[in-house]
């Protein structure tokens, strides 16, 4: 691995496609308050599971953590609230408006514009790199492999890569693909060392905002596990 990001060799057209998809999503109307509440609950569950995996690998908060595809900086803020120092949490995103938004809410964190084919950080700069519903947005398998390689490049030996993503994408959404175990293996060229299925079920949890916590918990218990949290050591 080189000490600095390599020149992009794949993903040019894919980068532009993804950038356009996310720019269009950002123009959608604001979500209903019940949906916003559902996302908060989903994110809290997801982050708790990610923290649990990290505690087994290396008790946080230690070293530096990178959020690849950080969007508006929500997870950066969550990691800070979980105890990581703001300066120890970094992020990168390919949409300039999202980078600006993330910087606005996390002014003490290092948030950079980057497309994933060449992450804008030096080798072994982090103990942990995360990607949340990022790889499912990449339809080009070569670009997925390149991004995973870049995440490995910027994580120190002995560090960890954490990936949380859809197992099955919505059939009506042609801009995403489900990240099955086979696709994860092909992307990383090896199976994840840790893998668990989770069940966010946005629509049903959102309905729980009207049904009440007890009903929502019952529904969630029987819900299919549509997402996967996976980790690889570097």
Quick recap:
The chain is α/β, with parallel strands linked by helices and 234 residues long.
Description:
By secondary structure, this protein is of the alpha/beta class. The chain has one domain: Rossmann fold (3-Layer(aba) Sandwich). It contains 8 helices and 7 strands; from the N terminus they run H-H-E-H-E-H-E-E-H-E-H-E-H-H-E. The protein has helices at residues 12-25, 33-57, 74-81, 96-105, 141-154, 181-188, 202-211, 213-222; strands spanning 65-68, 89-93, 110-113, 126-132, 155-166, 194-198, 227-233. A 7-stranded mixed β-sheet has the order 3-2-1-4-5-7-6. It is globular, with a radius of gyration of 17 Å.
CATH architecture: 3-Layer(aba) Sandwich
Query: Total number of β-strand segments?
Result: 7
Radius of gyration: 17 Å
**The CATH topology:** Rossmann fold
Question: Main sheet, how many strands, which sense, barrel?
Answer: 7 strands, mixed
The name of the CATH superfamily reads Vaccinia Virus protein VP39
Q: Quickly count the domains.
A: 1
Apparent shape: globular
Across the major sheet, the strand order is 3-2-1-4-5-7-6
Strand content: 15-25%
Mean pLDDT over all positions: 81
What portion of residues is helical?
40-55%
Number of helices, counting only DSSP H or I runs of 4 residues or more: 8
Span of the ends, CA to CA: 12 Å
**SSE ordering:** HHEHEHEEHEHEHHE
